[in-house]
Design brief:
The chain is mainly beta and 137 residues long. It is built from one helix and nine strands. 7% of the residues lie in helices and 31% in strands.
């Protein structure tokens, strides 16, 4: 049986979350807390839950939270995930557009100096993306 080696299998549409290749993006697997059913988008900032060892989506205020990593893909948490959580992949290092980093409600999160410094120490840096229309040739 012959296979088509030139068939299109996927399409990549850049979303502007990653803005530079230095430091290079590093991905690892973690367990996302599943106590609240919801859908979280790629780019959601996750905080470390010291008690359970899981991560959870950050509130917009980041009050008393330890920002830890950024979600790599959209994920939906269901009622069945409430006990064990959901295995997800996250960015633990890389250079990201701060306007594309989201809170638990899917809105852009305002990162204060303390949160930026905490993430910088972990290898996550921020650099705003320049729109193609305004970039000089």
């Amino acid at each position: 049986m012959a296979k088509q080696l030139n068939a299109k299998i996927a399409e990549m549409i850049p979303d502007g979350l990653i803005t530079d290749t230095q430091p290079r993006p590093i991905v690892r697997g973690v367990t996302l807390d599943g106590t609240t059913p919801a859908t979280h988008k790629r780019g959601t900032l996750l905080t470390l839950d010291a008690e359970g060892g899981k991560v959870k989506p950050a509130d917009s205020s980041l009050a008393e939270a330890d920002p830890d990593c950024i979600l790599t893909d959209d994920v939906t948490i269901t009622e069945a995930d409430s006990v064990s959580g959901v295995a997800v992949t996250v960015y633990v290092a890389g250079c990201f557009d701060p306007a594309k980093v989201l809170d638990k409600d899917g809105k852009p999160i305002e990162l204060d100096a303390k949160a930026r410094n905490t993430l910088r120490m972990k290898g996550i840096l921020f650099k705003a993306a320049v729109p193609i229309e305004t970039a000089e040739n």
